[in-house]
Specification:
259 residues; mainly alpha; 10 helices; cell membrane; transmembrane helix; transmembrane
């Protein structure tokens, strides 16, 4: 097999992994996409990796959203409030992120991931309220979490799912399966906002993005099906989510510190 074909397969497989993770836990797409592009595919510019991942994650999130919508696990009102409040923050964050050195950005990204992973593990046994909705009482909290998450999403060039899912749970107390499906609306919105900003600066590799999207569409379907099966086991989705975060963050920190 030629080196070109091997490289092509690596790009497609990386897209499948990203899509599967999005469909499974509603987040982790960019947590995986950025390091996969930098360390597996070999994208030399961290900003290009971030911009390209934002495009592919947004598209893959829409594919996963379609699957979750058909399964009726999306709470649309909460999704609309959260996403609309986060879009402006994502645009502001993306502008700030481009001014920071790429390797330092990846290191900060990894440290943030570890903190969120510990927060997720603390609430892993809380099943949430299946009837949870956005109302007058919790709308301010949903808006606040949306704005802050959008800002961080844009700054680190991520879809934000690994922040959106715990944010939705904390502000509405919905079950994690509903948070996963609902989060994909905001992941797509934040990713698109970030992608537009990076695209205008020439930081998107469209060929690579197309391959990630193709692989991710297949992965999203598989991830959604596994997610529905795991949702019946207390804390399993949360523990898996945190495990992905810790593993990838540790590797990113090691690579950033050792060049």
């Amino acid at each position: 097999m030629s080196p070109e074909m091997v490289h092509l397969l690596l790009e497609l497989l990386s897209g499948v992994i990203v899509g599967f993770t999005l469909g499974l836990i509603g987040g982790g797409g960019s947590i995986l996409a950025v390091p996969l592009m930098v360390y597996v595919v070999g994208v030399p510019n961290a900003h290009v990796a971030i911009g390209t991942s934002a495009v592919s994650v947004a598209a893959n999130a829409l594919a996963g959203l379609g699957y979750h919508a058909r399964a009726r696990t999306v709470k649309w009102r909460c999704a609309g409030i959260f996403a609309s409040c986060g879009i402006l923050g994502a645009l502001v964050g993306a502008s700030a992120g481009k001014a920071v050195d790429g390797q330092k950005l990846l290191l900060c990204f990894a440290v943030l991931m570890i903190g969120v992973g510990f927060l997720m593990l603390r609430g892993r046994h809380d099943r949430g309220c299946a009837d949870a909705q956005c109302n007058r009482d919790n709308a301010p909290r949903v808006m606040a979490f949306g704005g802050v998450t959008g800002l961080l999403s844009g700054f680190f060039g991520i879809g934000g799912g690994f922040l959106i899912v715990p944010g939705l749970i904390a502000s509405t107390h919905m079950p994690i399966l509903n948070a996963v499906g609902t989060s994909l609306v905001a992941v797509a919105a934040f990713g698109l906002s970030t992608a537009i900003s990076y695209m205008m600066s020439g930081y998107v590799d469209w060929g690579l993005a197309a391959l990630f999207i193709a692989g991710g569409t297949l992965g999203s379907y598989g991830g959604m099906r596994v997610s529905r099966r795991m949702a019946g086991s207390s804390g399993m989705l949360t523990v898996f989510f945190a495990g992905v975060i810790f593993c990838v963050a540790t590797y990113m920190i090691w690579r950033s510190l050792h060049g």
